[in-house]
Structures are given as C-alpha cells and as structure tokens.
Amino acid sequence: MNKPIIAVDMDDTICQLVKRAIYHNNINFPTHPLRYEDMLHWDTTHLRHPESTHDVFYGRPGLFEELELYDEYVVEEMERLNQAYDLIIVTAAEPRTVVEKWNWLQKHMPFITTDQFITCKRKYLLGFDLLIDDGAHNLIAAHDLGRKVLCIPHPWNVKEREQYGFPLMSTWHGAKGYIDRMLETVNA
C-alpha cells in the first residue's frame, strides 16, 4: 500500500521568510518601515520604499539560508511526518534561491533527501493527498481540484481563509496527530 503524499511548502510554512525580509527592509529603508501585521496581500509594493522592489525585498544574497524555523516544533514534527508519509517539500524558487533553500533544509532537516525537494510555483500540478501551505493561490487551486489542504495562517491569507474555510495549523505542535486525523479517509 502506498503512503499518502504530503506536500509541504517552505517559506512561511516551515521557516519565517516574510519576517526576516521585513527585518532587512527596515534596516535598509527606515523611512518606510514594514510590520508583519500590515502584510495583507502578496503584493506589498505600495507599502515598501520605491527602491525596495520585489527583487530587493526577497533578493538579499543568503536570505533563504538565514531564515528562522517556523516554530520550535517544526523539525520534530516534520521528521515524524517523514517517517509516516511520503513527504515532499514543494517550494516556489528562483534559480538563484534554489541552492540557498536546499542548504537551509540540509541544516535544519537533513532527513529530507534530494528526491523529496521540488521547486515549483504551480503546486496543484503535482499529485499529493495533502498540501500544507500559506499561499492562498496554492491552497485554492488544490482545494478546487478536490485535494485536502492545511493553511498556515498569516495576514496575507485572512480573506481567503474566511472565504474557503480552510483547516488551519498555526503551530507545528502536534502536527502529525492532526494530519493523521485529516488523512484517515485516505488511509482507509
């Protein structure tokens, strides 16, 4: 019997990208400070300094290697999921960030192999039983295809969370048990 496939996003799902990008933005552009709570949409151009383009905000060399873990439970729970399920990491990445993301994974989750690491923006194209993500566009596309989703809540997905009623996971504490219950019908 095949194990259910769990696809897990990286940025702002298992690590803290936006908070770190804000930190650097506020050092480099003190006249236009950002707050995590104000990040209500993916497009934050109107909030940032004109020189803080998307490439500047997310393009700092080494940024993806210095990210903090999502919380203190994420490594242990990801390892438990990796043992019980067919776990894949599916992350949107630009060519220059792929190595940084891989290095971060190997530092924090060395049990993830290259076979489990996929860079892809259109995640709905992949075959998975459950998607864990913060990106509303990814969750909606998977949901519309009848796939199970689990939303990591952030200010930028509030509207979609309310509209679609996605199941939420605001901490990785107890994640495997929660996911086991969500996937019981898949295992039956």
Word description of this protein:
- The protein has 188 residues and is an alpha/beta fold.
- 37% of the residues lie in helices and 13% in strands.
- It has helices at 17-28, 54-58, 74-84, 95-108, 136-144, 158-164, 175-182, 184-187, and strands at residues 5-8, 15-16, 68-69, 86-91, 117-119, 130-133, 148-151.
- It has a 5-stranded parallel sheet with strand order 5-4-1-6-7. Strands 2-3 form a two-stranded antiparallel sheet.
- Strand 6, helix 5 and strand 7 form a beta-alpha-beta unit.
- The model has no long low-confidence stretch (mean pLDDT 94).
Number of helices: 8
Radius of gyration: 17 Å
Our measurement of the CA-to-CA distance between the termini, rounded to an integer number of angstroms, reads 11 Å
Please indicate the percent range of residues in DSSP E strands (runs of 2 or more): 5-15%
Largest sheet report: 5 strands, parallel
> What is the H/E order?
EEHHEHEHEEHEHHH
Helix percent reads 25-40%
Indicate the mean pLDDT. Answer: 94
Shape: globular
In the sheet with the most strands, the strands line up as 5-4-1-6-7
Number of strands: 7
Going by helix content, strand content and strand pairing, the class is alpha/beta
